[in-house]
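Minutes, project check-in
Item: structure for the 254-residue chain
Input as provided by the requester:
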Amino acid sequence: MTTQTTIANTSEFCIEFDNVLAGYKDFMILNNLSLKARRGKITLLLGPNGAGKSTVLKTLFGLLTPRSGKVLMDGEDIGGISPKALLAKGVAFVPQGRNLFPQLTVKENLELGGITLGSKITNERIPEVLKFFPRVVQRINSQASALSGGEQKQLEIARALLLRPKVLLIDEPSIGLSPIVVQDVFKLLRRLADEEGTTVLMVEQNVKSALKMADEAIALESGRLVLHKRADELLADPNIERLFLGGHVAPVKT
């Protein structure tokens, strides 16, 4: 398998995996994976089921410890650091599914999200993050369970933003959402990168729509990088369907 890349190796990369081996017990998902994500940009991780996309995010967030290799953020090895410590370093994770306290109100969910900040700072930041989510503001005193799927996902992202993350990891944000709401979420991520300088790493099943919004794309297969290109270049690439459906990547002329 030939690894393809058209992305220059520069100091602008915020995240780097250097020959990372990681998985569960004796089953390795990431097989000497090396990749880089540029600071202040949206990088889309794609590939067939089992390629290692979600495992990259979990390893970055300290939910998995690399067996070997390095996970770097701004040049610092963060491999094996706890999620709590990574939150303090500015890494936030929005996993798949719903991860709210359904019987608590929107405001109470936000307050719990900022528990490490203390109540004073949290209450100061809640209006700051809610400027991105006008629909959530309207439901501030509603139970989280009463929100629509799109509103719940926005609440999860708002809770992550309370920590003013330098790096936002988000896994399958479109699951269960209507196409209109998905576009709202994508626009928000674009705004975070452009206006706040947030580095976003995203796994998303809606590949073509995500590529229209992302800056760069990384394709994985069997826990290895097989392609790293600009998103707009990959969007027009004939290999895109095979990448998503699990076929092997044909050589691409660059």
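Outcome recorded: The radius of gyration is 18 Å.
No further action items on this chain.
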